[in-house]
Amino acid sequence: MLDFETFLKVDMRVGKVLRAEPYPEARKPAIKLWVDFGADIGEKKTSAQITDNYTPESLIGRLVVGVVNFPPRQIGKFMSEFLVIGSEDESGGIVLLTPEKTVPVGGRVH
């Protein structure tokens, strides 16, 4: 079991997708994302296996939730700086978690 104090160490923030590109070099189909997490954190990049439900063009301007305090991770030739959060749909594709209403970029998820 995870205690609440440990959970609070996971820094999940709301960000806005600034840029998105196909990542054809990835082993599994993926999209590269550049996301603005506000003045305190800034812009971070990641790659995500979300091609079943999204195109790069459909992601621009979208609010997403990401874990911003994991260490960077090399994904092929691309350095991932955060983990975007999603859930599987009934066919196994990833659906991104997003706020129901517009909230400030950089806001912490509680």
Mind explaining what this structure looks like?
This protein is mostly beta strands. The protein has one domain: Nucleic acid-binding proteins (OB fold (Dihydrolipoamide Acetyltransferase, E2P), Beta Barrel). The chain contains two helices and nine strands. It has a five-stranded antiparallel beta sheet. Strand 5 and strand 6 form a beta hairpin.
Q: What is the succession of H and E elements? A: HEEEHEEEEEE
- For the secondary structure, the number of strands is 9
What is the level 1 CATH name?
Mainly Beta
Rg estimate, integer Å: 14 Å
How large is the count of helical segments?
A: 2
What count of domains describes the coordinates?
1
Task: Estimate the helix proportion, in percent.
Answer: under 10%
Shape: globular
Question: How are strands sequenced across the largest beta sheet?
Answer: 3-2-1-4-7
